[in-house]
């Protein structure tokens, strides 16, 4: 009976978000309360479960997401992203222009949230399309595949960062595994698949080609790359050092401190404030306004993450999570595949990768205590599932369609199938790493 009530709650969430067009945060709160009542939680305990779920989920995650947004915003506003893109284009030339855009999308996608990266990079794609007279989808899909993969697979993006916290995974290891999986996923879904779409007719509007900043107003390529990639570099370096070196307790404590994502991102924001802002003549007040705008951009993302945490805690408080774990444990399916499958189903129903990932975490989490599954791989498996088949209920689908001025059929053929390839390749990559860890 409890499982049916959970299914009802998930369907109600789908209905409110997809059909009712209710804000995702409000939908999570309403469904958490209704589900709590139906599951028999004492009425005075439901709100406490909601508060606990929100608090436990946000915790350090709020710092990571906010600092990540600030870093991405200063990288964009200072012209550092434009400098990286221009340098990559000059380095690769017209013959390898897809590689240039794909690598640019991957580098810029690490610090930038997807929507910000999309809006920032699309004018660059269109500039290349008009300059070299090349098909827009053929040119643009590799870069957008890279942005999508970093959004779904790699911390400090909201869903992967939240899943790392919920599954008590190691962010550095998750990032290392995620990079290993992300590269083939981007090449297959972006670079190779786009070559089958040269005949897709896309007529992007010339008015969307943004005026670039003059070259003399852009930061240097060294500072641009340093500020963009510092969080990734430090997380990977400290993780590798921690695994390879024998350290004293005091040295280990210092290394763990500098391996903390909040500390790393704070250092990156501080460095970017100096190198991309103050050192180049930007007033501190203007830098702070940029950061305030960044927080406004991701406020709703934080609330959605919090709402998902509230629903997860209601499941936990009712005891139904254990019941779900017992049922799922009996399924003849690998837990990593199960995590991917549940996330994929919720993604197709709801459209939001972040909501799909966090909702799946609430269902899968009880299994982690009973099965020997690497939590870092579970984070990536759910992240891959959360990118499955973006379609008409996903804002990213419509952004792609309208910016590229495509038909609905061609949008599904290009964007939706690209996301599906990313998702499937991600699962294959996760299972491959798991196989190597178990048998080698």
Automatic annotation (TrEMBL):
GO terms for cellular component: plasma membrane. The keyword Heme does not apply. Its main location: membrane. The chain crosses the membrane at residues 28-46, 58-76, 96-129, 136-154, 174-193, 221-241, 261-278, 298-317, 337-365, 377-400, 420-439. Keywords: Cell membrane, Membrane, Transmembrane, Transmembrane helix, Transport. InterPro entries: Glcn_transporter. Pfam families: GntP_permease (PF02447). It is a multi-pass membrane protein. It is found in: Cell membrane. It comes from the Bacteria. GO terms for molecular function: gluconate transmembrane transporter activity. Belongs to the GntP permease family. This is Gluconate transporter. It comes from Puia dinghuensis.
């Amino acid at each position: 009976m409890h499982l049916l009530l959970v299914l009802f709650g998930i369907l109600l969430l789908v209905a409110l978000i997809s059909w009712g067009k209710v804000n995702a945060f409000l939908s999570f709160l309403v469904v958490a309360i209704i589900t709590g009542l139906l599951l028999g939680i004492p009425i005075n305990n439901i709100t406490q479960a909601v508060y606990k779920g929100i608090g436990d989920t946000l915790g350090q995650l709020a710092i990571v997401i906010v600092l990540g947004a600030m870093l991405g915003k200063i990288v964009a506003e200072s012209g550092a992203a434009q400098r990286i893109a221009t340098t990559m284009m000059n380095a690769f030339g017209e013959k390898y222009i897809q590689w240039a855009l794909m690598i640019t999308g991957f580098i810029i996608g690490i610090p930038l949230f997807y929507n910000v990266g999309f809006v920032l990079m699309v004018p660059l794609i269109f500039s290349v399309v008009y300059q070299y007279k090349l098909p827009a989808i053929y040119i643009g899909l590799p870069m957008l595949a890279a942005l999508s993969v970093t959004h779904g697979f790699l911390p400090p993006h909201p869903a992967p960062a939240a899943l790392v916290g919920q599954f008590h995974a190691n962010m550095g290891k998750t990032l290392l595994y995620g990079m290993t999986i992300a590269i083939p996923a981007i090449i297959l879904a972006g670079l190779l698949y786009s070559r089958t779409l040269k005949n897709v007719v896309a007529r992007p509007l010339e008015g969307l080609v943004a005026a670039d900043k003059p070259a003399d107003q852009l930061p240097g390529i060294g500072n641009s790359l340093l500020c963009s990639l510092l969080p990734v570099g430090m997380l990977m370096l400290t993780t590798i050092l921690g695994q390879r070196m024998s350290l004293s307790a005091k040295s280990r404590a210092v290394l763990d401190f500098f391996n903390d994502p909040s500390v790393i991102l704070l250092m990156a924001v501080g460095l970017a404030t100096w190198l991309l802002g103050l050192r180049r003549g930007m007033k501190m007040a203007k830098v702070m306004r940029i950061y305030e705008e960044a927080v406004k951009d991701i406020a709703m993302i934080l609330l959605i993450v919090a709402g998902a945490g509230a629903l997860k805690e209601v499941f936990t408080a009712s005891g139904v999570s254990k019941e779900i774990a017992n049922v799922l444990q009996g399924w003849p399916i690998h837990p990593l595949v199960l995590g991917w499958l549940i996330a994929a189903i919720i993604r197709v129903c709801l459209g939001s990768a972040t909501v799909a990932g966090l909702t799946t975490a609430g269902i899968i989490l009880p299994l982690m205590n009973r099965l020997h599954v690497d939590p870092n791989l579970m984070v990536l498996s759910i992240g891959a599932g959360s990118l499955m088949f973006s379609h008409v209920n996903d804002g990213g689908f419509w952004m792609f369609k309208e910016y590229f001025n495509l038909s609905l059929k061609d949008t599904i053929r290009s964007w939706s199938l690209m996301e599906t390839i990313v998702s499937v390749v991600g699962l294959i990559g996760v299972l491959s790493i798991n196989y190597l860890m178990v048998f080698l």
